[in-house]
Design a protein that fits this description.
The radius of gyration is 16 Å and the shape is globular. A six-stranded mixed β-sheet has the order 1-3-2-4-6-5, sandwiched between helices. The protein has eight helices and six strands, in the order ααββααβαβαββαα. It has one domain: Uracil-DNA Glycosylase, subunit E (3-Layer(aba) Sandwich). About 40% of the residues lie in helices and about 10% in strands.
């Protein structure tokens, strides 16, 4: 996995994404003006022996694109790692930077697209090109039994990827919070993404996210 993540961090396959992530890292947000941004693709993070996989859309421009670790340094990460800590998958509820001591147990957190995209909207070609990295991550996570997809983008991308990996054309399951389907590698659970758009409006509450992870944990077998 370390070798793969090193390869991911040096990828320059999508010119639009490369230009955007590096522009953000150069111009920065005023509140982070004194920090050195990561400004590269971001690999997954956690326990390679994980039975739980959490998949998001992509690194946030001033979150993981700044800190170099998925869901770290932004509001979405605050929600996710608090919930993972509550469920017993994280040793602490906060994720501030790569050196904050956070450890995940039995969980791997990653994204479909590895670079921060403009307006959080990768193109279909960028999604398909980058899914190859996620495919290789899955090869190195043989113990996964439950996959939690944060948002409709991750939900649809994982269905496409699982179908391609298994050679089985499955019925497309429409995204919705709490929706699930049984795939060839285990249970797939959908959750609204813990973005500010969802958390500030109450579309996603802490109890809703906790419920998803409780369902995931209850499904894990030794």
């Amino acid at each position: 996995m370390e070798t793969l993540c090193s390869q991911v961090s040096s990828c320059r396959a999508c010119p639009r994404l490369v230009k955007w992530r590096e522009r953000v890292a150069r111009e920065k947000r005023r509140s982070f003006a004194d920090e050195t941004y990561w400004g590269r693709p971001v690999c997954g993070f956690g326990d390679p022996a994980a039975r739980l996989l959490v998949v998001g859309l992509a690194p946030a421009a001033h979150g993981a694109n700044r800190t170099g670790r998925m869901f770290t340094g932004d509001g979405s990460g605050d929600w996710l790692y608090r919930a993972l800590h509550t469920a017993g998958f994280a040793n602490q509820p906060e994720s501030v930077d790569r050196n904050d001591g956070l450890r995940l147990d039995d969980c791997w957190v990653t994204s479909v697209v590895k670079c921060a995209p403009p307006a959080n909207k990768p193109t279909p070609d960028e999604r398909d090109r980058c899914t190859g990295w996620l495919d290789q991550e899955l090869d190195r996570l043989p113990g996964v039994q439950v996959t939690v997809c944060l948002g409709g983008f991750a939900w649809t991308a994982m269905q496409r990827l699982v179908a391609r990996r298994s050679g089985i054309t499955a019925r497309r399951v429409t995204f919705g919070h709490g929706v699930h389907w049984e795939g060839p590698t285990g249970l797939f659970l959908a959750s609204y993404h813990p973005s500010q758009q969802n958390t500030f409006t109450g579309r996603l509450t802490e109890s809703m996210l906790d419920g998803i992870l409780a369902t995931a944990k209850a499904r894990l077998t030794s």
